Amino acid sequence: MAKLTKEALLDKESFSGRELAELSLGQVSALLAAGRVTSRSLTENMLERAGANESNAYITVNQEALAQADASDKRRALGQELGPLDGVPMALKDNICVQGLKTTCASRMLENFIPPYSATVARRLSDAGAVLLGKLNMDEFAMGSTSENSIFGPVKNPRNPKLVPGGSSGGSAAAVAERSAYFTLGTDTGGSVRQPAALCGVVGLKPTYGRISRYGVVAFASSLDQIGTLASDVEGAALSLQAIAGKDPLDGSSLAAPAEDYLSFLKGAQGAKGLKIGVPEEYMGPGIQEEVRRAVLSLSEKLKAAGATVEACSLPRLDYALSAYYVISSAEACSNLGRYDGVKYGYRAPSYDGLEDMIRTSRSQGFGDEVKRRILLGTYTLSAGYFDAYYRRAQQARTLIMEDFRQAFEKYDVLLTPTSPVTAWPIGTRHTDPSEVYAMDICTVSVNVAGLPAISLPCGQDSRRMPIGAQLIGRPLSEGILLKAAQAAEELAGEEARAK
Is 192 marked active-site? Predict the structure, then answer.
């Protein structure tokens, strides 16, 4: 459905199930507030769509979803609504813990794990009245760029089921793209919210490191992991961020800086006028699909014509980012996954000969190939003979990359780049060479290495009508300005960029 004004939306007499599903988060929030729809009707519609699961986006459906919807409708009837997300159906990536609801990380290691507590973001969304539809498919332990590394089978791109949706939050992006959730949460360690958002044609926001609590998220690489939001438009990303951002005493890495009123940056905004935008030349070189390059440059020209200052710029140490990322992330993954030993919780091998063999066999059978690959790489880089040569140097490169960004943001409000170097590719075609898959993160990993906020939004389509994503990167804690710039870019990209 084309995005209607609030007045036109409220004047519409009725909605079909398909029309309800195609509403944006902001639209459905307005209808709930006006009493035009009920949370139960929305939730039943979304559960039906999730039940079809054509993209294999859902791992677990929440059996309490309708009860949550009924509770929301009761609150609204009494004039006690909790805010704009009250009654809105959404879903979570399956590495975000919810008390009493299976959390698997798409791994045999946690196939039957039921958390005794909820992640802070899950509690905050519950406190905001959002209805949890279920848990979403992903790359095992969030390690991958395709969402094929799952014991539940690969996620399929809703635009073309023969193609990957991106990863590791492929289920989160696919659920929004197929309209089986109004918004979702994913995790972004090296682009795992933004890259699948780009490949599926939705909006994906990765905030500043520490802006959102990581408490209750199954750790991959602790200095890089960050929860992000996915929605059909920029307003939806702002609404969902508003509900979950802020300091959390349960997470020592969460920032004390208070969350802002992100929607205020979108209201009455003057579009692109006055924005200073840099286009780093390192993101436009060899390896970037020509259709992707043209779409991003076309968007830059539209922004310039709309009143923004747009200039080419340089991040000279960006070439270090991919190598530094994989060294740091694998080292931290190796450390974080050491807890899965078959003793305390998780998968235990059915037969073994003594404690050492139990641990070895449980880990061998419980982890998939990609997770084992990261553990081996991390163990190697942290070993006594190679720590200085790899891990220490990766951290030094990280400092240089952060300095490049700091200097760029002395001049520019945001940086504009492609999100993914290519559009979606066929399922099963790139597993013979892991380094080829790792290279798909080339446009996104530097943001995590530097701890910056970034957002991906649709900016065009390739010759197959598959989505192309543009990425906007901001300085630390500048989510408001980033969302303002993204909304301007979204309006300029036009409806054709999002068309199915």
Answer: yes
For 274-301, the pLDDT digits (tens) are: 999 999 999 998 899 999 999 999 999 9
| Burial of 305 per CB tally in 10 Å (0-12, 13-18, 19+) | exposed
Max Cα–Cα distance, the chain, nearest Å? 71
Of 24, 29, 168, 254, catalytic: 168
How distant, in Å, are the alpha carbons of 272, 306, 396 from that of 300? 11, 10, 32
Q: Is the pLDDT of residue 471 over 90?
A: yes
For every residue of 95-112, DSSP letters joined together read: TB-BTTB---TTSGGGTT
Asked whether the beta carbons of 96 and 227 are under 8 A apart, the reply is yes
Q: Is the pLDDT of residue 500 over 90?
A: no
Q: Are the beta carbons of 129 and 83 closer than 8 angstroms?
A: yes
Report the amino acid identity of residue 262: Y
CA distance 163 to 168: 15
Active site residue 93: yes
Catalytic status, residue 335: no
Pairing of strands 414-418, 467-474: antiparallel
Amino acid at residue number 455: I
Instruction: Name the one residue in this structure whose structure tokens are 């408001």.
Output: 480
Question: Which of the residues 93, 156, 206, 484 is marked catalytic?
Answer: 93
**413 neighbors 277 (Cβ within 8 angstroms):** yes
**180 near 51, Cβ under 8 Å?**
no
Compute the Cα dihedral for 122, 128, 132, 137 and give only its sign. negative
Task: Give pTM, 2 decimals.
Answer: 0.96
The rounded distance, in Å, linking the Cα atoms of 132 and 93 is: 11
Strand partners, 455: 205, 472
Q: Is the pLDDT of residue 436 over 90?
A: no
Catalytic residue among 145, 192, 240, 420: 192
Distance of CA 317 to the CA centre of its chain: 25
The mean pLDDT value of the chain amounts to 95
Provide the angle, in degrees to the nearest 10, between the axes of the packed helices 234-244 and 25-33.
70
Using alpha carbons, select from 270, 285, 193, 279 the residue that is nearest to residue 230: 193
> Cα-atom radius of gyration of the chain, to the nearest Å?
22
Question: What is the C-alpha separation between 139 and 107, in angstroms, rounded?
Answer: 9
CA atoms of 190 and 225, how far apart (whole Å): 8
Closest CA to 456 of 236, 202, 155: 202
pLDDT at 250 (0 to 100): 97
H or E stretch at 33: helix 25-33
